[in-house]
């Protein structure tokens, strides 16, 4: 995004201009959770429309939150991954999840064991462990797909 497309110079408003829509953080969640392709993300339980998913992937890529590489055997297949900038959004997701678990526990039933652990650990501790695992898995996948 160029500076002219932001609503203001407020850090919160600018951040929301980039990732504050209904789908962007769910895409980040899916990538962090191991999904790699357009189809895998399209099949997420929230049911994002294909045109919206394509638009958000493009926007996240333009803002260097995600990137991709092509499969070695099929140039049409893209494997998406979080950049370092994108990985840092994980702490925002953890805090939203912690808040939801605290105030809307009936809505936070998908990952109760994880949320219980999160409520007892610091976000930074969980972030370091999970992003290290994600980075190692991403590198391993890339090497397998592009020997």
Write up this protein.
- The protein has eight helices and two strands; from the N terminus they run ααααββαααα.
- By secondary structure, it is mainly α.
- It folds into two domains: 78 residues, Winged helix-like DNA-binding domain superfamily/Winged helix DNA-binding domain (Arc Repressor Mutant, subunit A); 44 residues, no CATH class.
- Strands 1-2 form a two-stranded antiparallel sheet.
- α6 packs across α7.
- The radius of gyration is 16 Å and the shape is globular.
- The termini are far apart.
- 16% of the residues are buried.
- The model has no long low-confidence stretch (mean pLDDT 88).
Annotation keywords:
147 residues, mainly alpha, Arc Repressor Mutant, subunit A, 2 domains, two-stranded antiparallel sheet
How is this fold's topology laid out?
Blueprint: H1 11-19, H2 24-32, H3 38-42, H4 50-62, E1 66-71, E2 74-82, H5 84-87, H6 90-103, H7 112-120, H8 123-145
Antiparallel strand pairs: 1-2
At a glance:
By secondary structure, the chain is mainly α. The protein has 8 helices and 2 strands.
Q: Which ranges are low-confidence, i.e. pLDDT below 50, for 5 or more consecutive residues?
A: none
Structural class: mainly alpha
Shape: globular
Helical residues, percent: 55-70%
**Topology, number of strands:** 2
Q: Could you give a short account of the major beta sheet?
A: 2 strands, antiparallel
Q: Give the CATH architecture of the largest domain.
A: Orthogonal Bundle
Number of helices: 8
Question: For the record, what is the CATH homologous superfamily label of the largest domain?
Answer: Winged helix-like DNA-binding domain superfamily/Winged helix DNA-binding domain
Identify the strand order in the major beta sheet: 1-2
**Might you state the CATH topology name of the largest domain?**
Arc Repressor Mutant, subunit A
Q: What portion of residues belong to β-strands?
A: 5-15%
């Amino acid at each position: 995004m160029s500076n002219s497309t932001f609503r203001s110079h407020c850090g919160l408003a600018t951040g929301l201009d980039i990732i504050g829509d209904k789908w962007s953080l769910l895409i980040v969640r899916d990538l962090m959770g191991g999904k790699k392709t357009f189809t895998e993300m399209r099949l997420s339980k929230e049911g994002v429309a294909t045109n919206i998913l394509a638009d958000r992937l493009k926007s996240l890529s333009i803002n260097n939150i995600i990137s991709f590489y092509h499969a070695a055997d099929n140039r049409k297949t893209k494997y998406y991954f979080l950049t370092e900038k994108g990985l840092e959004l994980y702490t925002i997701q953890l805090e939203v999840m912690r808040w939801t678990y605290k105030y809307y526990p009936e809505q936070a039933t998908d990952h109760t064991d994880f949320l219980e652990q999160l409520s007892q650990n610091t976000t930074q501790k969980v972030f370091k462990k999970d992003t290290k695992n994600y980075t190692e898995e991403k590198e391993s996948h890339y090497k397998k797909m592009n020997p």
